[in-house]
Amino acid sequence: MLPNVVSILFLLCLSTFLCCLLNRVSSFNLSLPHQHPYPEAVVQQVQSKVNASVSRRQLLSSTQNDQAQCITGNPIDDCWKCDPNWANDRQRLADCGIGFGQGAMGGKGGQIYVVTDSSDQDPVNPKPGTLRYAVIQDEPLWIVFAANMQIKLKHELIVNSFKTIDGRGALVEITGGGCITLQYVSNIIIHNIRIYDCVPSGNANIRASPTHVGWRGKSDGDGISIFGSRNIWIDHCSLSHCTDGLIDAIMGSTAITISNNYFTHHNEVMLLGHDDRYLPDSGMQVTIAFNHFGVGLVQRMPRCRRGYIHVVNNDFTEWKMYAIGGSANPTINSQGNRYIAPVDPDAKEVTKRVDTDEKDWSGWNWRTDGDMLVNGAFFVPSGDGLSAQYAKASSVEPKSSGLVDQLTMNAGVFGGPRDNSVSMSYGGGTTTGGGYSGSGGGGGSDGDFLGMIFGSSAPPPPSSSSNHVLWSLLFSVILILHLTSNQVAALLPLLLSL
Prior knowledge:
By secondary structure, the chain is an alpha/beta fold. The chain contains ten helices and 31 strands. Strands 1-2-5-8-13-16-20-24-27-30 form a ten-stranded parallel β-sheet. The protein has a nine-stranded parallel β-sheet with strand order 3-6-9-14-17-21-25-28-31, with no helix packed on it. The protein has an eight-stranded parallel β-sheet with strand order 4-7-12-15-19-23-26-29, with no helix packed on it. Strand 10 (204-209) and strand 11 (212-216) form a beta hairpin. The longest helix is centred in the first third of the chain and has 24 residues, at 2-25. InterPro entries: AmbAllergen (IPR018082), Pec_lyase (IPR002022), Pectin_lyas_fold (IPR012334), Pectin_lyase_fold/virulence (IPR011050), PEL (IPR045032). Pathway: Glycan metabolism; pectin degradation; 2-dehydro-3-deoxy-D-gluconate from pectin: step 2/5.
């Protein structure tokens, strides 16, 4: 009888211990191979570049030359746009990035590829001259457009590494099935493109490179989907009216900058992070700078899971639920933004901790530094973000939200509409992202896994902590079956000492 009692006690103790251990492991802040080891240094570098451009603008303001009129203080635009001959040196843009995605080289060093055909008839055998043919090539390419064009995709556009999609000098619109997918790639620049009315597509073969055609399940209908990718820069795009997210970055993606974009008419605008339990997203690092979050937006600007998110000098002019949300302990560093709260008295808070009790999120590092809070808007800081000493040590100087107008004045496609208030009929509808619900949660799972990050073909991690309990119980049962009562008794002192 005694051996049976000891075995049962051992089983219960061991299962409890293993369950606690697995839950503790799940809280580790894992690193990704390409994440920056000192994110605060990247933040300070962004601030320094803004300071330099603003100072230059002030220095030239008294002169009447064309360059003085062009300079805005926006360090990205001032890097290339004031050169009247910029079109002769398009690849200079690759040197103008800031933030975590500043290493994105796109197609720099490669040939210029001119898109002359706006059709998208065959995703398996794309026609030369089309955008799809260009983006699947293996070599670096700097892709430009021969004329204004609307590209209505049949299925998602799967982009290969080392590509720049450069819409400057033309009005380029991408719409239709799936839209743009960046999966397990690096060094992508997407610039000056209008993306809208993206709807789910798939269950079809789609070519991803000259040598590979793969079956793709149904896509979510994101404007731009970033999946297990790095060194990504999305700049001066206008995005609206997609079925799921306008920009989603998941599954261990990192080294991303989202800048100078114009977001309108959408529910779930931007998701950063696959799932609360997906540990590699702890290494996600994203800079969100100089964007205009405009009319018709509801939530997720962005919604973050894990990672380090720097939100700097953006203009938030509308939300229905909240502007910035998060779960699973992301670091959110909000600097020099303008947050204009809606009329709704129940939606004044900028921030939302999604499905988390205050006792759990009080230690999360959410900081507001130099933000302008308008019409009753309020930002709830937490963790180190509550410390004035931390803010002083981490900043060159707080970024004045008074700069927002000039830094975001050209957000979106150059020469494009400032308010996409008229719904476009292309692309099959104007659904706006997953249904407007009060939970603010949502998924982000792609569903079409071609192998997890780091090349493993294993399935995603367990989706519930209850799995930890089941596995620990199973492990304990197996162990008991292999132990005699004397061995169990011998192990008890060791167990009690843990």
